[in-house]
UniProtKB/TrEMBL annotation:
Belongs to the binding-protein-dependent transport system permease family. FecCD subfamily. Pfam families: FecCD. The chain crosses the membrane at residues 20-40, 78-97, 109-129, 136-156, 162-185, 206-224, 250-275, 295-320, 326-347, 367-390, 423-440, 452-471, 477-499, 508-530, 550-569, 597-623, 635-657, 669-686. It is a multi-pass membrane protein. The keyword Transport applies. This is ABC transporter permease. The keyword Cell membrane applies. One of its GO terms (biological process) is siderophore-iron import into cell. GO terms for molecular function: transmembrane transporter activity. It is found in: Cell membrane. SUPFAM superfamilies: ABC transporter involved in vitamin B12 uptake, BtuC. Keywords: Cell membrane, Membrane, Transmembrane, Transmembrane helix, Transport.
């Protein structure tokens, strides 16, 4: 036996010696690369300062002008990139380790959204806080958001639940913060730009107070590393080793949020670094087993995170001119890169979420369906009448009658000439978004699908914002056309990538979330770099506001909505078959690919024209068809009219509340629908079984 085992041990010994040496070389190479990136970053900017000037400033031999620029701006920016990237890389690696979820990160746990809202509330209150106190506020907001997401998604329940819960909560919290920005523009000045994330600094006043916070978080994780290693064996095995599983996870989440809060305080939310850094390290761990130990994984992930932030800043300033680069946040670059990374991960991930037929509800009789439609029609009439009569000026039905007959006085005529087109735009947009959501859910057989979640709304938003900011005098049809092009391109990417394997649930939603995140970052970029007038206009438009809408704005929606209803209503049986499974349509002579493509094209058209008319309005395409199916069953001959009515009521009611509750100030209908849609989405997610995720 000895003779047979000795050669094996002798053969393994060189690799055992070489691997630690290679690991050290890898670590040294990473440190050198980060140092080089930091050095290059200090040479970039509006002032013409080269490597020699930086070296002279570092050794104290530079003249006054060069030294002041390098010491006061360039060095702090590079240090901020190092600290922020390292903190986010460690936080992301720790969250993924304790949740055993490769998509856990400060972004997907809504930590950034919670911190953003908490700091927004402090800004509105007018309370001036020192840097450490601001970090404490961001920590509390981020911790509350992360705790809620983890409670909703559960630990070990799969990537899809966590991403959906985090995305929904981030949308809801972001809507509240957006409302604060619009209602209190003076108190929240600069908050939107800060939310995009930028490492530009003016000295070390913000960085130095956060260094002890980052040190506490990193040291805490290193002390906790042996427990995290035990968690990798499974909860039962960890308990068998005497590890308190629940308290370990709680402490790890708290430390991760602490690191994220420090990063947010220094540079604002830098997106997706915590997701990308551990994912880049994970494949290397196959060659270097030491990286399977959590202390090594956390350290290297932090180093990679620093490299990602610095490389993004270097890339930004290399591509964009010096003067323009000052206004472009680094977080936009990391968000776009992270969105691409998320899409790639979604495509490579093994998808176990099956595309099953939409949920089957009780099937009511025709009388019950007729009564439901009648009740919704009456509710819509009531909401429309209230929307016409209520607002900054209260009117009577007699005033409306006089206006219709041309006998109203000038003041009332002016009010109704501006108010009625707004009501019509809200009604039509709600109906169009509801029909679009019905088609998307039917084609993908996914009750969680929605034009907003799947990136179609963000594509339309990018096209429309580009038209609004680049061509302020763009016509209604021009904005609608730009929105359609953006929505079509986004839909082509999302549905094209998800079509492989039959629109399976995990892949479709994760690709949609990734594309939506990237397009949202580009929208933020356009708003940040444009002039203030167009930026305010775009921000108001993104809130789903009907302010200033005319009959011409609603015309494209009318055309597309009527055409879509004419095409969809007679084809309700084909939509029923497509939403059933892959085989039934083919057996009954339905051309599955052609029919699916036609329905998706209609949904893109509906979404684009609705967003071009009233701006971004979320969750309507999710809530309306789901509510319709829960009441009248799964047959689309019943679902379509009910969903259209529900969507119209939701957006009209949101617009009415936004115009009246805090009058004379106004909130966009999109903010109100997000506040209603977020808890509904969470409730729907809780009802979805956790198995098969």
């Amino acid at each position: 036996m000895t003779g047979t085992t000795a050669p094996t041990r002798a053969g393994r010994r060189p690799s055992g010696v070489a691997r630690p040496a290679l690991g050290v070389l890898l670590l040294v190479a990473g440190i050198v690369l980060v140092a080089v990136l930091a050095a290059v970053d200090t040479t970039q900017g509006t002032a013409n300062i080269g490597v020699a000037d930086v070296w002279r400033a570092l050794t104290g031999r530079a003249d006054g002008a060069d030294a002041s620029v390098v010491v006061a701006s360039r060095f702090p920016r590079a240090v901020a990139g190092l600290v922020v990237g390292f903190a986010l890389g460690v936080a992301g690696a720790a969250l993924q380790a304790v949740t055993r979820n490769v998509l856990a990160a400060p972004d997907t746990l809504a930590v950034n959204a919670g911190a953003y809202l908490a700091l927004g509330i402090v800004s509105v209150s007018g309370i001036g806080l020192p840097v450490v106190a601001q970090s404490g506020v961001a920590f509390l907001g981020g911790l509350a958001a992360a705790a809620l997401v983890l409670a909703l998604s559960g630990l070990g329940s799969g990537t899809l639940r966590l991403v959906l819960a985090g995305t929904a909560l981030a949308l809801g919290l972001g809507s509240v913060t957006q409302a604060l920005v619009l209602l209190f523009p003076q108190q929240t000045r600069g908050l939107y730009s800060w939310n995009q994330g930028g490492i530009a600094q003016n000295g070390y006043d913000t960085i130095l107070p956060m260094l002890p916070v980052v040190a506490v978080g990193v040291v805490g994780f290193l002390l906790l590393s042996h427990r995290v290693d035990a968690l990798a064996l499974g909860d039962d095995a960890a308990r068998g080793l005497g590890v308190p599983v629940r308290s370990t996870r709680i402490v790890a989440v708290v430390l991760a949020v602490l690191l994220s809060a420090a990063a947010v305080t220094i540079a604002g939310p830098i997106g997706f670094v915590g997701l990308c850094a551990p994912a880049l390290v994970r494949p290397v761990a196959r060659t270097f087993p030491t990286l399977h130990r959590s202390w090594a994984l956390l350290t290297v992930s932090g180093l990679v995170g620093a490299g990602v932030v610095l490389a993004s800043d270097v890339l930004l300033r290399a591509v964009v001119s010096g003067d323009r680069a000052v206004t472009v946040p680094t977080g936009v670059v990391t968000s776009v890169l992270g969105a691409v990374f998320l899409v790639v991960m979604a495509l490579r991930m093994r998808d176990t979420g099956q595309t099953t037929p939409l949920e089957v509800s009780r099937i009511p009789g025709r009388l019950a369906v007729a009564l439901t439609v009648a009740a919704l029609a009456a509710a819509l009439v009531g909401v429309v009448v209230a929307s016409v009569l209520l607002g900054d000026a209260m009117l009577l039905l007699g005033d409306v009658s006089n206006w219709l007959t041309g006998r109203a006085n000038q003041a009332i005529a002016f009010i109704l000439d501006t108010r009625v087109p707004r009501v019509a735009a809200a009604l039509l947009a709600g109906a169009a978004l509801a029909l679009a959501g019905t088609l998307v859910q039917g084609v993908t057989r996914n009750p969680l699908a929605d034009p907003g979640v799947l990136g179609v709304s963000s594509g339309a938003g990018l096209g429309a914002v580009l038209a609004v900011t680049a061509v302020p005098a763009a016509s209604t049809w021009g904005v609608a056309g730009a929105a359609f092009v953006g929505a079509a391109l986004a839909a082509l990417v999302v549905f094209g990538l998800a079509a492989r394997g039959g629109f399976r649930q995990n892949r479709l939603v994760l690709v949609g979330v990734g594309v939506s995140a990237g397009l949202t970052a580009l929208i933020s970029l356009l708003i940040v770099v444009t002039d203030p007038f167009n930026a305010n206009k775009a921000l108001t438009w993104l809130s789903g506001s009907t302010y200033g809408r005319t009959w011409q704005d609603s015309l494209p929606v009318v055309v597309v909505l009527v055409a879509a209803l004419v095409l969809v209503v007679p084809a309700h049986r084909e939509l029923d078959l497509v939403s059933l499974d892959e085989d039934s349509p083919r057996l009954l002579g339905v051309r599955l690919g052609r029919t699916r493509l036609g329905f998706l094209a209609l949904s893109v058209l509906l979404t684009a024209t609705a967003i071009a008319a009233v701006g971004t309005i979320g969750f309507v395409g999710l809530v309306a068809p789901h509510a319709a199916r829960s009441v009248v069953g799964r047959a689309h001959a019943r679902v379509v009219p009910v969903a259209v009515l529900v969507g119209a009521v939701l957006v009209c009611l949101g617009d009415l509340l936004g115009r009246t509750v805090i009058a004379p100030a106004q909130l966009g209908a999109g903010i109100l629908t997000a506040l209603v849609g977020t808890p509904y989405f969470v409730w729907l997610l809780l009802r979805t079984p956790r198995s098969g995720q």
